[in-house]
Amino acid sequence: MPDSTALITNDAAVLGLLALILGAVFYTERSSLSFWRSFYKYVPALLLCYFVPSLFNTFGVIDAGESDLYFVASRYLLPACLVLLTMSTDLPAILRLGHRAIIMFLTGTVGVVLGGPIAILLVSMVSPETVGGAGPDAVWRGMTTLAGSWIGGGANQAAMKEVFDVGDDLFSQMIAVDVLCASLWMAILLFLAGRSAAIDARLGADTRAIDDLKVRVEKFQEQHARQTSFHDLIFLLAISFGATGFAHFAADWLAPWIAETAPGLDRYSLTSDFFWIVVIATTAGVALSFTRARNFEGAGASKIGSAFLYVLIATIGMNMDITATLENPGLFAVGGIWLSVHALLLIVVARLIRAPLFYMAVGSQANIGGAASAPVVAAAFHPSLASVGVLLAVLGYALGTYGGWLTGQLMRAVAPGGP
Length: 419
Fold this sequence. Notes:
This protein is mainly alpha-helical. It has one domain.
């Protein structure tokens, strides 16, 4: 192959550049300067973590096609990230939130699973080319990354990209749809949060459990918070990369065995070693959540997992072509229909079970926005409730891999065009 013409070709230098970009984004996000406060009010930091590396790739500063960074991040950091994010799932604490909170969260998940296929069906009646395509450029494949993101988060989104072999240009478009649609929905939820008392009164919602919930959450925070030690960090690395190594070891045996004994399952990604890596890593994290390993959340397990995740996001961004986001503007309508199905289902169920607006909003955002924004919506109701958004969003990480895959199979069945 000919030598790359990019300005920076050394992967160590590219990694350093990506790290500097992430540092600059989060430094400016925390700035007290009025310009940056206004800027980040409208532009999510997550978008910049994708967008800025894509500029360096688009204008030839780096050559993503010649770099191994994405492969390393997706195979090593992604599984470790899934383990760290899911092992802090406190299922007993989530169950103690009350049945209405769990029902609204799961309703949001079902809304995403059903919304994708419904959006494809509706749009295909008017503009089949918008949701058509074949191979890596089949739109349904790209939409699986939205399903992963809108049930779990960025790690699940990246997992769906690999499991369903989504093309880089199509993935660029889906990132734009994800950020725009999810940001608009979050803005709507924050607007409603300021009017929650009036809305709950009109709907006749039962809000008595929320005060008790605030007390329980504050106690939970006091019991688990602690200063992170060197030993904590070593144990977290041992757990996350140990589970990642086991996932690779098991996938190297399981995927070829399935391919040999049941080759027809290739249609459902069950012969993909990467599929089994992310499933086994997610399952390991959930299993660890029932052990004392869950207590490492107080030492920053999810923060380290999030750091791994943002390195992964930057490597995904550097593979994007920003000019591809405008090639199929109809995809924004698909995303809007998808979220409308999600919202409508939430409203109907909330009315049936008399759930407070808080449960509906946080249950939705724990799916659509994940751990980055669910606490923001929860805190808009009361600052002490921010961790409720985290708890439900972590549950979303655990479901994101499975839910994203299920949604992908449903969308495959209804999508026009080739597989």
